[in-house]
Write a structure and sequence with these properties.
Length: 398
C-alpha cells in the first residue's frame, strides 16, 4: 500500500515538474528552440492519441462482457448521468452568472499572442479510428460477445485488455510528463501564462470555484447512491487531475485516470474499466459549466446584454447532447458547440474568436474537472448496480 502511494506521488511530482520546466523553457526559448519543442509535443501527442482508441476498446469491451446482464442498463444509466451532469453544471453556471456577471468589471479586449513556431519535424501516427468510433466498436463488440456467448472471443478480449494495460503502464504514462512540459512551454512562449491570464483571472477563478462545487455535488450524489465514502475515490485522483491540467485532454489523461480509479478500494474493477473510458468520451461537465459562464460574459461584453432565459435554456439542453459527442481532445467541447454558439446565441466571428481565446485559458481546469468527475459516475454506478458480476475482482488493480 505504501509503495502504491509512493508511485502515485512520484507521478504527481513528475507531472508538476513537467509543468514548471515547460513554463520555464517557454519563457526563455527563442523561435528555433520552440520549433524543436513543438516537434516533441507533436510526436508525443501523435503517439498518445494513437493509443487512446485502442485503450478504449481494450478496457470497455471486456468490461461489458464481465457486466453480463447489467451491461445494457449500465450503459444507459451512464449516458443519462453524463447528460444530466452536463445540464446540471450548465444550469448552475447560468444562475450564478445572472447573480455575479452584472457586477463584474468585464474586460473589453485581449492582448495579441505570440505565434508558436510550427514543428520542424512531424511524425504522423494517425489513429486507427476516432474516439467515438472506438467507443461504438467497444460497445458493439461487448454486447455481441455477451449475446452470442462467444467464450473464445471473450477470452481474446481479456488478453487484449492485459496487453493494453501493459502498454498504458509501460509506454503511455512514462511519456506524459514530457508531453505536459511541451504543452506548457507553448503556453508560456505565446504569452497565455503571462499576458492573457491576469486579464481574465477573475473569470477563470469563478469558473474553477464552480468546478469545485460541481465535483462536490457529483461525489455527494455518488456517495449517497453507493453508501460508500466518496473520499476513497477522490483521494486517488491527484495524478489524473494534474495530468489533465497539463494535457488539456480527457483522452490523453485516460491511462492515468484508469490507474487512479483502479486504486480505489470501493470501486469494482469491472465498473472502473467500463465507467472511466466511457466518461472520458461523454462526460464533459466541467467544460460545459465553464463555457456557459463564458458565453454570458462575452455576450455582455460584445453585445451589451446577457442572453435571455429562454435562449440559454435551449442552449443548455442542446449543449448537453453535443457534449456527449464532443471529442475528448484539447478544445473539443468548445469546437463541438460552435454551431450552437452561432445559431442559438447569435455570436458573430468576433464573439467566436474571443470565446476560443478565453476558453483556452481554463481548458486545463475544465478538463481536469471532467476527468475527476468520472470517478463520481463510477461511484454512482456502483450504487445503481450493486449486484453486477464481480468476476473481474480476480484481475489485479492497475
Amino acid at each position: 500500500m505504501q509503495s502504491n502511494r509512493f508511485k502515485e506521488w512520484g507521478l504527481i511530482l513528475k507531472l508538476f515538474g513537467g509543468i514548471v520546466l515547460g513554463a520555464g523553457v517557454g519563457l526563455v526559448a527563442d523561435e528555433n528552440a520552440m520549433a524543436v519543442v513543438s516537434s516533441i509535443k507533436y510526436t508525443l501527442g501523435q503517439f498518445i492519441f494513437f493509443m487512446v482508441p485502442l485503450v478504449i476498446i481494450g478496457f470497455i469491451a471486456p468490461a461489458i462482457t464481465r457486466l453480463r446482464h447489467n451491461a445494457n442498463r449500465m450503459l444507459g444509466a451512464a449516458i443519462s448521468i453524463a447528460y444530466l451532469s452536463a445540464v446540471g453544471a450548465a444550469t448552475m453556471a447560468y444562475f450564478a452568472g445572472l447573480w455575479i456577471i452584472p457586477h463584474m468589471s468585464v474586460p473589453t479586449s485581449i492582448e495579441a499572442l505570440r505565434h508558436v513556431p510550427e514543428a520542424v519535424f512531424k511524425l504522423d501516427i494517425p489513429p486507427l479510428m476516432s474516439v467515438m468510433s472506438a467507443l461504438v466498436t467497444a460497445i458493439v463488440l461487448g454486447i455481441a460477445v455477451l449475446s452470442t456467448k462467444a467464450k473464445q472471443f471473450e477470452a481474446l478480449l481479456g488478453e487484449f485488455e492485459s496487453i493494453m494495460l501493459l502498454v498504458v503502464k509501460g509506454m503511455v504514462i512514462p511519456v506524459l510528463p514530457f508531453f505536459v512540459a511541451a504543452t506548457f512551454a507553448g503556453l508560456a512562449y505565446e504569452g497565455t501564462l503571462t499576458e492573457q491570464l491576469p486579464v481574465f483571472l477573475k473569470v477563470v477563478v469563478l469558473a474553477i470555484i464552480g468546478h469545485v462545487i460541481w465535483l462536490a455535488v457529483l461525489y455527494g450524489i455518488g456517495g449517497a447512491l453507493s453508501r460508500k465514502n466518496p473520499w476513497q475515490v477522490l483521494r486517488h485522483y491527484g495524478p489524473a487531475y494534474l495530468t489533465a491540467v497539463g494535457t488539456m485532454s480527457s483522452a490523453a489523461t485516460l491511462p492515468v485516470a484508469l490507474e487512479c480509479a483502479g486504486k480505489s478500494p470501493v470501486l469494482r474493477r469491472d465498473t472502473v474499466d467500463f465507467a472511466i473510458p466511457l466518461g472520458a468520451t461523454i462526460h464533459l461537465a466541467g467544460s460545459v459549466l465553464t463555457e456557459t459562464f463564458f458565453v454570458m460574459v462575452i455576450s455582455l461584453m460584445l453585445y451589451g446584454a446577457l442572453p435571455s432565459m429562454g435562449t440559454m435554456a435551449l442552449f443548455i439542453l442542446l449543449f448537453g447532447i453535443f457534449a456527449i459527442g464532443a471529442p475528448g481532445v484539447p478544445g473539443g467541447t468548445v469546437m463541438a458547440s460552435m454551431g450552437l454558439v452561432v445559431g442559438v446565441l447569435g455570436f458573430d466571428a468576433t464573439g467566436v474568436a474571443l470565446l476560443l481565446a478565453v476558453f483556452a485559458l481554463q481548458d486545463s481546469f475544465g478538463t481536469a474537472t471532467n476527468v475527476t468527475g468520472d470517478g463520481a459516475i463510477a461511484l454512482m454506478l456502483e450504487g445503481l448496480f450493486p449486484d453486477s458480476d464481480s468476476a473481474s475482482t480476480q484481475v489485479d488493480k492497475v
